[in-house]
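I have been asked to look over a protein record a colleague put together. Thanks in advance; the entry in question is below.
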Amino acid sequence: MPTDKLFEINGQWIDKIAGRSGYYAFRYDARSRQVVRTSLKTTDIEEAKVRLAAITVNTVVHDPRHPDEVLLVAVLNHYS
């Protein structure tokens, strides 16, 4: 389990795992209530930062309950 965040961006962070040589990207998954890790497949911290930034840009946080996502017809049907 990660203890120190070497670099953090948009709720995701980089850390190392004891006994492993590379860097990992971590994020908290609210649905499963667990920290999820993904190997960044690099031992260079600067390259790991670039790879985490790319992951963060490509990760879309989608909340179907957000006002921008809810269709008016769905709300009206709920109250009719």
